[in-house]
Amino acid sequence: MNETPQVPDTATYTAAESAPDVLDRIVARTRIEVAHRSTLMNLKEISAKAREVEFHPRGFGRALKEKTADLTPGLIAEIKKASPSAGLLRDPYDPVAIARSYEAAGAACLSVLTENSCFHGTTDDLVAARNACQLPVLRKDFIVNPWQVYETRLIGADCILLIMAILKDEEAAELVDHAKGLDMDVLVEVHSEEELNRALVLDTSLIGINNRDLKTLTTNLETTVTLAPLVPPDKIIVSESGIKTHEDIKRLSDVGASGFLVGETLLRSSDPGEALRALLGNS
Protein backbone atom coordinates (compact mmCIF):
# COMPACT_ATOMS: atom_id res chain seq x y z
CA MET A 1 0.00 0.00 0.00
CA ASN A 2 2.91 2.38 0.66
CA GLU A 3 4.76 1.93 -2.66
CA THR A 4 5.07 5.31 -4.35
CA PRO A 5 6.62 6.59 -7.54
CA GLN A 6 9.76 8.69 -7.46
CA VAL A 7 8.65 12.32 -7.47
CA PRO A 8 10.32 15.49 -6.17
CA ASP A 9 10.55 15.74 -2.39
CA THR A 10 8.83 18.76 -0.84
CA ALA A 11 10.02 18.36 2.72
CA THR A 12 12.11 21.53 2.55
CA TYR A 13 11.69 24.76 0.67
CA THR A 14 13.26 28.19 0.59
CA ALA A 15 11.85 31.38 2.04
CA ALA A 16 11.29 32.61 -1.50
CA GLU A 17 8.85 29.77 -2.10
CA SER A 18 5.38 30.70 -0.86
CA ALA A 19 3.14 28.40 1.19
CA PRO A 20 0.59 28.08 -1.64
CA ASP A 21 3.43 26.76 -3.82
CA VAL A 22 4.16 24.10 -1.20
CA LEU A 23 0.45 23.25 -0.90
CA ASP A 24 0.15 22.98 -4.68
CA ARG A 25 3.18 20.72 -4.81
CA ILE A 26 1.86 18.46 -2.04
CA VAL A 27 -1.49 18.12 -3.81
CA ALA A 28 0.16 17.49 -7.17
CA ARG A 29 2.41 14.85 -5.63
CA THR A 30 -0.59 13.25 -3.90
CA ARG A 31 -2.47 13.00 -7.19
CA ILE A 32 0.54 11.30 -8.81
CA GLU A 33 0.86 8.84 -5.93
CA VAL A 34 -2.83 7.96 -5.96
CA ALA A 35 -2.77 7.45 -9.72
CA HIS A 36 0.17 5.07 -9.25
CA ARG A 37 -1.32 3.15 -6.33
CA SER A 38 -4.64 2.75 -8.14
CA THR A 39 -2.83 0.82 -10.87
CA LEU A 40 -1.80 -1.70 -8.21
CA MET A 41 -5.32 -1.91 -6.75
CA ASN A 42 -8.10 -0.22 -8.68
CA LEU A 43 -11.06 1.62 -7.16
CA LYS A 44 -13.40 -1.36 -7.48
CA GLU A 45 -10.92 -3.64 -5.72
CA ILE A 46 -10.05 -1.29 -2.88
CA SER A 47 -13.68 -0.34 -2.28
CA ALA A 48 -14.59 -4.02 -1.98
CA LYS A 49 -11.76 -4.61 0.49
CA ALA A 50 -12.77 -1.54 2.53
CA ARG A 51 -16.33 -2.83 2.84
CA GLU A 52 -15.03 -6.16 4.13
CA VAL A 53 -13.11 -4.60 7.03
CA GLU A 54 -14.33 -6.30 10.19
CA PHE A 55 -13.58 -3.60 12.76
CA HIS A 56 -16.28 -0.96 13.09
CA PRO A 57 -15.62 2.79 13.11
CA ARG A 58 -15.10 4.06 16.66
CA GLY A 59 -17.25 7.16 16.26
CA PHE A 60 -15.02 10.20 15.88
CA GLY A 61 -17.89 12.68 15.77
CA ARG A 62 -19.68 10.91 18.60
CA ALA A 63 -16.62 11.18 20.85
CA LEU A 64 -16.50 14.95 20.28
CA LYS A 65 -20.24 15.31 20.86
CA GLU A 66 -19.95 13.45 24.16
CA LYS A 67 -17.26 15.87 25.31
CA THR A 68 -19.47 18.79 24.24
CA ALA A 69 -22.39 17.37 26.22
CA ASP A 70 -20.14 17.07 29.28
CA LEU A 71 -18.96 20.67 28.81
CA THR A 72 -15.37 19.50 28.55
CA PRO A 73 -12.91 20.23 25.72
CA GLY A 74 -12.80 17.62 22.98
CA LEU A 75 -9.06 17.52 22.41
CA ILE A 76 -7.91 15.90 19.17
CA ALA A 77 -4.27 15.10 19.86
CA GLU A 78 -2.08 14.97 16.78
CA ILE A 79 0.70 12.55 15.93
CA LYS A 80 3.19 13.73 13.30
CA LYS A 81 6.92 13.61 12.85
CA ALA A 82 7.42 16.91 10.99
CA SER A 83 5.65 19.80 9.28
CA PRO A 84 6.54 22.32 6.54
CA SER A 85 6.34 25.24 8.96
CA ALA A 86 8.20 23.70 11.91
CA GLY A 87 10.46 21.03 10.42
CA LEU A 88 11.27 17.92 12.45
CA LEU A 89 9.15 17.84 15.61
CA ARG A 90 10.19 14.66 17.35
CA ASP A 91 13.19 12.34 17.16
CA PRO A 92 12.95 9.54 18.07
CA TYR A 93 9.37 9.34 16.81
CA ASP A 94 7.18 6.62 18.33
CA PRO A 95 3.49 6.79 17.30
CA VAL A 96 2.58 3.93 19.63
CA ALA A 97 4.01 5.55 22.76
CA ILE A 98 2.54 8.93 21.82
CA ALA A 99 -0.93 7.47 21.23
CA ARG A 100 -0.89 5.71 24.59
CA SER A 101 0.23 8.84 26.42
CA TYR A 102 -2.51 10.88 24.77
CA GLU A 103 -5.21 8.37 25.69
CA ALA A 104 -4.03 8.20 29.31
CA ALA A 105 -4.04 11.99 29.54
CA GLY A 106 -7.66 12.39 28.41
CA ALA A 107 -7.64 13.03 24.66
CA ALA A 108 -10.99 12.60 22.94
CA CYS A 109 -9.53 11.51 19.59
CA LEU A 110 -6.29 11.16 17.66
CA SER A 111 -5.16 12.81 14.45
CA VAL A 112 -2.40 11.02 12.56
CA LEU A 113 -0.46 12.53 9.65
CA THR A 114 0.02 10.05 6.82
CA GLU A 115 1.42 12.45 4.17
CA ASN A 116 5.05 11.59 3.48
CA SER A 117 6.75 14.36 1.52
CA CYS A 118 6.39 17.24 3.99
CA PHE A 119 5.14 15.55 7.16
CA HIS A 120 7.22 12.34 6.98
CA GLY A 121 4.11 10.29 7.76
CA THR A 122 2.95 6.87 6.56
CA THR A 123 -0.24 4.85 6.74
CA ASP A 124 1.71 2.46 8.99
CA ASP A 125 1.90 5.26 11.59
CA LEU A 126 -1.89 5.41 11.71
CA VAL A 127 -2.29 1.64 11.92
CA ALA A 128 0.20 1.47 14.79
CA ALA A 129 -1.36 4.36 16.71
CA ARG A 130 -4.90 3.02 16.33
CA ASN A 131 -3.89 -0.45 17.48
CA ALA A 132 -2.19 1.02 20.54
CA CYS A 133 -5.33 2.64 21.99
CA GLN A 134 -9.12 2.80 21.86
CA LEU A 135 -9.46 6.39 20.64
CA PRO A 136 -11.16 7.27 17.35
CA VAL A 137 -8.65 8.33 14.69
CA LEU A 138 -8.66 11.07 12.07
CA ARG A 139 -6.51 10.48 9.00
CA LYS A 140 -4.76 13.80 8.42
CA ASP A 141 -3.78 13.95 4.77
CA PHE A 142 -4.63 15.64 1.49
CA ILE A 143 -7.69 13.71 0.34
CA VAL A 144 -8.48 14.50 -3.29
CA ASN A 145 -9.68 11.20 -4.72
CA PRO A 146 -12.33 8.61 -3.73
CA TRP A 147 -9.59 5.95 -3.83
CA GLN A 148 -8.05 7.57 -0.75
CA VAL A 149 -11.34 7.40 1.13
CA TYR A 150 -11.45 3.62 0.76
CA GLU A 151 -7.76 3.37 1.62
CA THR A 152 -8.51 5.39 4.77
CA ARG A 153 -11.13 2.90 5.88
CA LEU A 154 -8.88 -0.01 4.98
CA ILE A 155 -6.12 1.22 7.32
CA GLY A 156 -8.60 1.68 10.16
CA ALA A 157 -9.25 5.43 10.35
CA ASP A 158 -12.62 6.60 11.63
CA CYS A 159 -12.68 10.06 10.05
CA ILE A 160 -11.24 11.82 7.02
CA LEU A 161 -10.13 15.43 6.65
CA LEU A 162 -11.34 17.42 3.65
CA ILE A 163 -9.58 20.73 2.99
CA MET A 164 -11.89 23.10 1.14
CA ALA A 165 -8.92 25.13 -0.14
CA ILE A 166 -7.85 22.25 -2.39
CA LEU A 167 -11.26 20.92 -3.45
CA LYS A 168 -14.05 22.03 -5.75
CA ASP A 169 -17.58 21.85 -4.33
CA GLU A 170 -18.53 18.79 -6.38
CA GLU A 171 -15.31 17.01 -5.39
CA ALA A 172 -15.93 17.65 -1.70
CA ALA A 173 -19.54 16.46 -1.94
CA GLU A 174 -18.48 13.25 -3.70
CA LEU A 175 -15.82 12.51 -1.09
CA VAL A 176 -18.30 13.07 1.74
CA ASP A 177 -20.71 10.62 0.11
CA HIS A 178 -18.03 7.94 -0.18
CA ALA A 179 -17.01 8.41 3.47
CA LYS A 180 -20.57 8.27 4.77
CA GLY A 181 -21.12 5.09 2.75
CA LEU A 182 -18.38 3.55 4.90
CA ASP A 183 -19.80 4.97 8.17
CA MET A 184 -16.81 7.28 8.54
CA ASP A 185 -17.07 10.84 9.81
CA VAL A 186 -15.81 13.85 7.85
CA LEU A 187 -14.04 16.88 9.29
CA VAL A 188 -14.25 19.70 6.74
CA GLU A 189 -11.49 22.28 7.13
CA VAL A 190 -11.94 25.97 6.28
CA HIS A 191 -9.75 29.06 6.50
CA SER A 192 -12.13 31.83 5.41
CA GLU A 193 -15.78 32.85 5.40
CA GLU A 194 -16.05 31.90 1.71
CA GLU A 195 -14.76 28.39 2.43
CA LEU A 196 -17.04 28.14 5.47
CA ASN A 197 -20.11 28.93 3.38
CA ARG A 198 -19.12 26.22 0.92
CA ALA A 199 -18.51 23.72 3.73
CA LEU A 200 -21.87 24.32 5.41
CA VAL A 201 -23.62 22.89 2.34
CA LEU A 202 -21.94 19.51 2.86
CA ASP A 203 -23.55 16.65 4.76
CA THR A 204 -21.32 16.68 7.82
CA SER A 205 -21.60 18.05 11.34
CA LEU A 206 -17.85 18.62 11.86
CA ILE A 207 -16.42 21.98 10.84
CA GLY A 208 -12.70 22.57 11.34
CA ILE A 209 -11.45 26.15 11.42
CA ASN A 210 -7.73 26.24 10.72
CA ASN A 211 -5.99 29.18 12.38
CA ARG A 212 -2.99 28.75 10.07
CA ASP A 213 -2.84 31.14 7.11
CA LEU A 214 -2.03 29.03 4.06
CA LYS A 215 -0.31 31.97 2.39
CA THR A 216 2.13 32.75 5.19
CA LEU A 217 2.01 29.61 7.38
CA THR A 218 1.52 31.87 10.42
CA THR A 219 -1.20 31.17 12.98
CA ASN A 220 -3.74 33.52 14.50
CA LEU A 221 -6.52 32.39 16.82
CA GLU A 222 -8.59 35.33 15.60
CA THR A 223 -9.52 33.15 12.62
CA THR A 224 -11.63 30.97 14.91
CA VAL A 225 -12.87 33.98 16.86
CA THR A 226 -14.12 35.53 13.62
CA LEU A 227 -15.58 32.46 11.91
CA ALA A 228 -17.00 30.43 14.80
CA PRO A 229 -20.03 32.71 15.37
CA LEU A 230 -21.02 32.13 11.73
CA VAL A 231 -21.36 28.36 12.23
CA PRO A 232 -24.89 27.05 12.97
CA PRO A 233 -25.37 25.61 16.48
CA ASP A 234 -26.02 22.09 15.18
CA LYS A 235 -22.40 21.81 14.02
CA ILE A 236 -19.35 20.82 16.07
CA ILE A 237 -16.60 23.44 15.68
CA VAL A 238 -13.02 22.19 15.81
CA SER A 239 -10.38 24.90 16.16
CA GLU A 240 -7.09 23.84 14.58
CA SER A 241 -3.49 25.09 14.89
CA GLY A 242 -1.85 27.67 17.14
CA ILE A 243 -3.39 26.42 20.40
CA LYS A 244 -0.73 26.52 23.10
CA THR A 245 -2.35 27.01 26.51
CA HIS A 246 -5.43 26.21 28.57
CA GLU A 247 -6.30 29.89 28.31
CA ASP A 248 -6.37 29.55 24.52
CA ILE A 249 -8.87 26.71 24.84
CA LYS A 250 -11.06 28.75 27.20
CA ARG A 251 -10.97 31.72 24.83
CA LEU A 252 -11.95 29.60 21.84
CA SER A 253 -14.63 27.79 23.85
CA ASP A 254 -16.21 31.15 24.60
CA VAL A 255 -16.82 31.75 20.86
CA GLY A 256 -18.33 28.31 20.26
CA ALA A 257 -15.48 25.87 19.63
CA SER A 258 -15.79 22.56 21.46
CA GLY A 259 -13.13 20.56 19.63
CA PHE A 260 -9.43 21.48 19.55
CA LEU A 261 -6.84 19.92 17.26
CA VAL A 262 -3.38 20.32 18.75
CA GLY A 263 -0.09 18.93 17.50
CA GLU A 264 3.10 20.95 17.77
CA THR A 265 2.46 22.16 21.33
CA LEU A 266 2.23 18.55 22.48
CA LEU A 267 4.90 17.01 20.29
CA ARG A 268 7.58 19.55 21.20
CA SER A 269 7.11 18.66 24.86
CA SER A 270 9.34 16.07 26.51
CA ASP A 271 6.13 14.46 27.82
CA PRO A 272 3.23 14.85 25.33
CA GLY A 273 0.74 13.34 27.76
CA GLU A 274 1.63 15.79 30.51
CA ALA A 275 1.45 18.67 28.02
CA LEU A 276 -2.05 17.49 27.05
CA ARG A 277 -3.14 17.45 30.70
CA ALA A 278 -1.91 21.03 31.05
CA LEU A 279 -3.92 22.09 27.99
CA LEU A 280 -7.03 20.54 29.53
CA GLY A 281 -6.30 22.27 32.84
CA ASN A 282 -5.67 18.97 34.62
CA SER A 283 -1.96 19.23 35.41
Overview of the molecule:
This protein is 42% helix and 16% strand. By secondary structure, the chain is an alpha/beta fold. Strands 1-4-5-6-7-8-9-10 form an eight-stranded parallel β-barrel, surrounded by six helices. Strands 2-3 form a two-stranded antiparallel ribbon. Helix 2 (43-51) runs parallel beside helix 6 and helix 6 (146-154) packs parallel to helix 7. The chain has helices at 19-40, 43-51, 60-69, 95-105, 123-131, 146-154, 169-181, 193-199, 222-227, 246-254, 264-267, 272-280; strands at 74-79, 82-83, 87-88, 109-113, 137-140, 159-163, 185-190, 206-210, 236-240, 259-262. Pfam families: IGPS. GO terms for molecular function: indole-3-glycerol-phosphate synthase activity. This is Indole-3-glycerol phosphate synthase. Pathway: Amino-acid biosynthesis; L-tryptophan biosynthesis; L-tryptophan from chorismate: step 4/5.
Helix content: 40-55%
Whole-number average pLDDT? 91
The N- and C-terminal alpha carbons lie at a distance of: 40 Å
Q: By helix and strand content, what is the structural category? A: alpha/beta
